[in-house]
Specification:
CATH class of one domain: Alpha Beta
Number of strands: 27
CATH architecture of one domain: 2-Layer Sandwich
Largest sheet: 10 strands, mixed
Number of helices: 25
Helix content: 25-40%
């Protein structure tokens, strides 16, 4: 059963193609006038501008959107990673007939360019040879401005994750302030948020028919600017739905006070009930039932930009209301004032059906980077070239993650036949294929074809997560469709191995032991990554992640089925440091948990507040928007200071000698000096190994050699470690082996 099939949404594959369909399908979408000439085009109908290199593969947003619009009959050109210093590069394909489509790329440009410590990155995975600085900060704003300079009368449509997550007033971590909606600052004509296919197809055809983009205001999944709320709409203040601020004492439910003006809501009964004393007059309270409101004509007013910018409590409140109005089945329109204008957000888009998903992913992608890049290595392409996206969306609702805010909580699935066709296409067309599919997954590994048991309940639900604090009783956790898909995929001729690289939702997986067995015995290449994120319930509750009981249950299953298959396999856990709600004691307890299980991790993620995430609202406001936000509600401790964030990261990497001085100081301050020493139950030693000085080389560069004075390196025995794996994998593998009577080597 398809969810939302009863809701009115024209299938995207049923539109009458635009007249330019006669030009046929391009082997690869043009990026220059010469390529346009070769196709016989005198102009482009739509020009897409992206901050990523152009790779014609459905995992890259501009390729997917470009091929989709091409299938609608439009001539689509792509300007990839243009020089943004002036408008010249934005004129490369001439003036588009319909509009410019602007995106920062597959990632928010600020997340792409900066680390969690606000330091600029030295590489960019979406750029040839990982070259840095090929896109500007806040790329959507810059690209929009340059398109206006190039052709001032051409409409500008902004989309992608950067625009989607900045559609209302949002906290910006890199400037440490609340910024206006990106729609205001970009001066775009319209913003498309979430998965854009349905909105983009309708918008393109309506513009092509001559409709002014300023008049197109009824498409779901879009946002635009206007002067006032139109007539006929019932405006509801968000502060009445979910009132922030000081909470008044509750009224006494047993107290009855009647005034002269209360006759309309109470009448005297002609007689008293039998159990009352004779002569007593009873009061009957009449509660007139209001007619059911038409939610399709309701708009929820969020606090204005100026208010949320100055009041963190109001900001957290607005964030909470936006997330509560995110289910396509019951969400209402939202409006937020910015100065003298209104940012209007239509309800979220209707999810694509399986037929529509197949239509999108079966388009004729070249499945390779544009030839202009020649032999340059593009890390993002190398990572996904042999992977297949089988679904979209996530109902996990993790507060630090933006998948739900962008793709929604409703899982959108491809058909089994479409997925298997793509596996065969990779086998036959993608250079370098050795028989290994690196992933069959999506935002998560194991939500394929999992949905609510009831379409009615699904449409009415306003929960932020289907799996927190426990898996919802209305959620169908049957993994049989995914098991069947795995079996058919690995039986395709020429396919040697199917690996699962997407993050696994293990609290969901344990509901299906058959799935865990199938996964562990056939689709794990020695290591499986999972994300407990933390060990302490205090922090996990702010993340909306399951407790460690679910991890222990999955770990037991993983080890059992690995042993049955005669395989040595290891779990690679991921953790977040400095998440809102985390204290020094929480990080110490996590470090002790890691040491207890002998985990030595090199890869540590420091929390990055991304726009519109619930955890970002916690970070900015110090309040918890998972509950009603008031001035008197409990404060959430937020590790903001650089020294504290560094300490929290050091706790996870307790095994690194460089962190020991900081940890010793912290443990003494916390009254836990007992954890300093040589014992197995102690966290760090009291001694500090000798650190060799910096050596300067002839070319002017310098390096600090490792100190090997305390141990000699020996060549490892046994099977050779696969090249290219992170050092954490080696540490995890060594940690899982039985302890031997020899000195531990510190790397």
């Amino acid at each position: 059963m398809e969810i939302y099939t009863t809701m009115l949404a024209k299938p995207i594959q049923t539109y009458r193609p635009y007249w330019a369909k006669r030009f046929g399908t391009a082997s690869i979408l043009p990026t220059s006038r010469e390529e346009m000439d070769a196709l016989g085009w005198d102009s482009c109908d739509i020009i897409l501008v992206t901050g990523d290199a152009y790779i014609d593969h459905p995992s890259f947003g501009m390729a997917l959107v470009g091929r989709l619009l091409e299938a609608q009959g439009f001539r689509v050109g792509i300007i990839a990673q243009p020089d943004w210093q002036n408008a010249h590069a934005f004129k490369a394909l001439g003036k588009p007939n319909l509009y410019f489509g602007i995106t920062a790329g597959n990632m928010d440009s600020m997340v792409n360019r900066y680390t969690a410590d606000r330091k600029i990155r030295s590489d960019d995975a979406y750029t040839p040879d990982a070259a840095p600085n090929k896109r500007p900060d806040r790329a959507v704003l810059v690209y929009s401005q340059r398109c206006r300079e190039a052709y001032s009368k051409v409409p500008v449509v902004v989309g992608s994750i950067e625009a989607s997550l900045r559609r209302i007033a949002h906290y910006d971590y890199w400037s440490d302030k609340v910024r206006r909606s990106i729609l205001v600052d970009s001066k775009a004509d319209i913003l498309i948020y979430g998965n854009a296919e349905r909105a983009l197809v309708e918008l393109s055809h309506r513009i092509a028919k001559g409709e002014a983009v300023s008049q197109i205001q009824d498409i779901r999944g879009t946002a635009y600017m206007q002067k006032t709320v139109p007539e006929g709409w019932d405006e509801i203040q968000s502060t009445k739905l979910d009132r922030p601020g000081k909470v008044d004492a509750p009224a006494d439910p047993y107290e009855m006070k009647m005034g002269k003006g209360d006759a309309s809501c109470a009448t005297e009964s002609a007689g008293a009930p039998a159990d009352l004393p004779a002569g007593t007059k009873a009061i009957q309270v009449v509660r007139p039932r209001k007619p059911k409101a038409d939610r399709s004509k309701q708009v929820v007013r969020l606090p204005a930009y100026e208010d949320v910018a100055n009041d963190p409590v109001l900001y957290a409140h607005a964030s909470r209301v936006l997330h509560l109005e995110s289910n396509p089945g019951n969400a209402r329109a939202l409006v937020q004032k910015h100065g003298d204008r209104e940012v209007w957000l239509n309800p979220p888009p209707i999810p694509l059906t399986t037929k529509e998903m197949d239509f999108v992913y079966d388009l004729p992608y070249a499945r390779k980077p544009h030839p202009v890049y020649k032999d340059a290595k593009i890390p993002a392409w190398d990572m996904i070239r042999f992977s297949v996206n089988i679904m979209r969306g996530c109902f996990g609702g993790c507060t630090f993650c933006s998948i739900t805010e962008h793709e929604g909580r409703i899982i959108q699935n491809r058909s089994e036949a479409s997925i298997l066709r793509e596996v065969e296409e990779i086998r036959d067309k993608v250079d370098g294929f050795t028989g290994v599919i690196s992933d069959l997954g999506g935002p998560t590994a194991n939500m394929y074809r999992i949905a609510c048991k009831s379409e009615k309940i699904e449409k009415a639900c306003r929960k932020l997560s289907c799996v927190y604090p426990d898996v919802c009783e209305n959620l169908n956790t049957d993994h049989s469709a995914l098991i069947q898909l795995y079996r058919k995929a690995r039986n395709i001729k020429g396919v040697k191995k199917i690996l699962i690289g997407s993050g696994l939702r293990y609290d969901l997986a344990v509901k299906s032991p058959e799935y865990v067995k199938e996964l562990v015995q056939h689709h794990v290449g020695g290591y499986l990554k999972i994300a407990p994120e933390h060990s302490e319930e205090n922090v996990l509750s702010k993340m909306m992640k399951p407790g460690m009981g679910a991890y222990d249950e999955f770990k037991a299953m993983f080890e059992k089925y690995s042993a049955e298959a005669g395989k040595k396999q290891y779990l690679i856990p991921y953790f977040i440091a400095s998440h809102p709600g985390t204290t020094d004691e929480d990080m110490l307890n996590l470090a002790l948990w890691l040491k207890r299980y002998n985990f030595r991790l090199d890869q540590v993620q420091n929390f990055t507040p991304t726009p519109m995430a619930m955890a970002t609202a916690m970070y900015h406001s110090g309040k918890n928007p998972l509950r009603k936000v008031t001035e008197d509600s409990d404060d959430v401790p937020v590790p903001k200071a650089g020294k504290i964030r560094k300490l929290h990261k050091a706790f996870i990497r307790y095994h690194d000698p460089e962190n020991w001085p900081m940890l010793r100081e912290a443990l003494k301050r916390m009254g836990r000096a007992d954890l300093i020493g040589p014992g197995k139950k102690q966290l760090i030693p009291a001694f500090q190994p000798k650190v060799m000085g910096t050596i300067k080389q002839s070319d002017g560069s310098s390096f600090k050699p490792k100190d090997n004075s305390r141990a000699k390196h020996k060549k490892s025995k046994g099977r050779r470690q696969p090249s290219g794996l992170p050092k954490a994998f080696n540490d995890m593998k060594n940690a899982a082996r039985p302890a031997r009577n020899k000195k531990r080597i510190i790397h």
